[in-house]
Amino acid sequence: MPEEINPFKIAQQQIDIVAEKLELKKGIHEFIRWPHRELEVHFPVKLDNGDIITFTGFRVQHNNARGPCKGGIRYHPSVTLDEVRALATWMTWKTAVVNIPYGGAKGGVICNPKEMSVSELERLTRRFTSEISIIIGPEKDIPAPDVYTDAQTMAWIMDTYSMNVGYSVPGVVTGKPLCCGGSLGRHEATARGCMFTIREALKHMDYKVIPPEKWQAECKIDENDEIIGEGIGENVCDGDMGSGYRFDNTTVAIQGFGNAGSIAADLLSHKGAKVIAVSDSKGGIINKEGFDTDKLIDHKLKTGTVLGFIEATEEVGTNDVLEVECDILVPAALENQITETNVENIKVKIVAEAANGPTTPAADKILFEKKIFLIPDILANAGGVTVSYFEWVQGLQQFFWSERDVNIKLREIMVKAFDEVLEMSEKHQIDMRTAAYMLAVQRVADAIMIRGIFP
Ligand code: NAD
């Protein structure tokens, strides 16, 4: 029988496995299998040609035991309620695994933003915000960007919400532009957090990672404890102060070249890694010598795709990059990309899940058997929500931090979470995903139990 790939069923299966291991109370197990609150809305939007189209959108809040709900909003033709439920559930575990005081939520609108004008997207966003404004708010549920939504979308949401309450409320969304309450470092945070977890994995495996003392001979540490010297580039501002590890000689393949994927490519290559394969929704490209990622990002910005990039030696399908032999694979597109159909062809040392839910449970088992080190999504891509948390804190206090402070605090949180998950996995001899879930689910269950069941 083919594997079930309904993401919400997968999210529930993951909870079931962990609930058994943690010996969770039956009632708590049943409660966390389902989102606490779901809102489905059907709303009209006027197109530029005067036509009126009814769109469907969702906001799902999975759990708020540890704090306000938090999670992105996705615009995509294949959004479904079950997908949003799964993503909301994963947000609960993600915020718990990095131990920031949030619960989990997610939103989505079924639409094709590529076929809509900017003004149509603005009207869709403003109307959707109004529709869900009864359940969002800085103390209740704080949206952020996800697939095909960005800082501009967040600015429209903040403005719409603020207009309705009569004053500016920067804390209602994160991932905003810098000019209206965004945080330095937020744009790069998902990829940077992912890079930190890859660095920790390479260190743990003692694989192709170059510790600072091996390459710092010709570099100096300046008065701010930052490394300076020729070719240091990214290390100066990446929160690696005084401890820059390099990844020279590692090779990387990345599926998805948007916010998470393209910035991960750039950060990893500035650390010395060779990015040898990338893809987006239109196709993939390969060059075994590695791409100049600055030029590749420029090409993607100009043409809307990685295809046609001058350094490509081969053009392939979107999913073929998953099967390229290399050290590190970063799925950074959508769910269910590594399945039982293609997992046998994956030939890497590390899979770092920048995307949410890219691996199905059947494929997960096989990755573990193949001794591929998996950095699970709720850990690998938690940098985004972590800096969203910093943005929310800064907005509530109206006190803004330097990029260096943001990156250092991000590094501290990511490294601590990585260490805790690794320790759990070693202690119980389990894979990293199950370990991350055990840590997260236990934290949420503890919060539910200690708060007690109302009334
Ligand atoms: P994005 O819209 O910026 O980019 C998505 C990219 O994926 C685009 O390049 C698109 O062309 C590509 N893509 C779509 N379908 C593809 C396919 N079948 N094969 C190859 N590429 C494909 O989105 P994003 O924000 O980078 O999000 C990507 C993933 O990372 C999602 O799973 C998202 O939930 C997750 N994520 C993002 C953030 C964040 O802060 N942006 C945080 C946590 C998790």
Describe this structure in words.
The protein is an alpha/beta fold and 455 residues long. Helix content is 42%, strand content 17%. It contains 14 helices and 14 strands. The chain has helices at residues 7-22, 26-32, 81-97, 118-132, 151-165, 186-205, 212-215, 259-270, 293-303, 361-369, 377-380, 383-397, 403-428, 432-451, and strands at residues 37-46, 52-63, 69-76, 103-110, 141-145, 220-221, 227-228, 251-255, 274-280, 283-286, 314-316, 328-331, 350-352, 373-375. It has a 7-stranded mixed beta sheet. The protein has a 5-stranded mixed beta sheet with strand order 1-2-4-3-5. Helix 8 (259-270) links the parallel strand 8 (251-255) and strand 9 (274-280). The longest helix has 26 residues, at 403-428. The chain is globular and about 55 Å long. The model is unreliable at 230-238 (pLDDT under 50). The structure holds nicotinamide-adenine-dinucleotide. Residues 145-148, 190, 255-261, 279-281, 318, 332-334, 354-356, 381, 384 line the site of nicotinamide-adenine-dinucleotide.
